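Hi Prof. W.,

I finally got the 2-dehydro-3-deoxy-phosphogluconate aldolase prediction working! I wasn't sure whether to trim anything, so I left the full sequence exactly as given:
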Amino acid sequence: MAVNPQLLRPIDLASYGPVIPVIVLERVEDALPLARALYAGGVQVLEVTLRTPAALPAIAQIARELPEVIVGAGTVLNAADAGRAREAGARFVVSPGYHRELAQACRALGLPLLPGVATASEVMAALADGFTFLKLFPADAIGGLGLLKAWRSPFQHVYFCPTGGITSATAPQYLALPNVRCVGGSWLAPAPSIQAGDWVRITQLAREAQALRPA
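And this is what came out:
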């Protein structure tokens, strides 16, 4: 599915599959083989977290060499992070929490933002600023399934991408909820497989993730 980056909305990310991989890269040289392995398994949207020095150059490589992949930056904490991510070629950014200044900076950059929330007050703040697709983080630690069920009534027009502690076993439970459009998961790109260059294993994990359906 081809998407014009100028028209990409955060909710569009969910249309590519049920799981967005949350990626931590220690080595830039792993970026392209990892992205190719995930793409071979049907995963087209990648979130590379800004937790290591390798992240921004990795995003740049993927954006340049694999334009068919929609690469974004995760763990974006402020406007400076957003600007660096945009310069590297990120098509979207993800934040662990909600902050109006970050939202305004992303809008000024023309960069779609998937903001994180953990409380009803944060949902209300994001909703007031026009965001209706949010990342619930850290989902498992804050009782994600029960919380999302409770929020369905007061926030009927808000949808979520739960992330944090979700596994291939629990993902279908989240995906079965009417206010969940996709989930974020680190299990698609496990560190031991990346370190070993086991790209076949990662492609298999991607295929399994793409096949996930509600329980």
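The chain has one domain: 18-206. Does that look reasonable to you?

Thanks,
D.
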